[in-house]
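Quick one: co-fold with zinc ion.
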Amino acid sequence: MSKRKKHPNKHIEDALRFIESEGWTVELTKGGSAHPWANAKCPYNRRSCRNGMFCRFGVWGTPGNPELFAKQIRSVVEKCVVHKQEKAKQAQKGQ
Ligand SMILES: [Zn+2]
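Sure, here it is.
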């Protein structure tokens, strides 16, 4: 299991575990009111992906609507172009 510190909100923690299981990296920041709680990054270091708006984002410690924010975190994985392509490749290999 990940040794990452848990997010204080259960919905967001669940969403973070989901994206980590899909290969995303969740890096905790030093915090502070002007910084997100963590930065989440897509696993693919590719131009088509990095230039997309969905592949790197800040995870806020206390979002106004945690359930909605958790949904947005999950949708990041679904919207990653490269991730979709990689999944399709794996499916073709019969995995
Ligand atoms: Zn991506």
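If it helps, The chain has one domain: 10-92.
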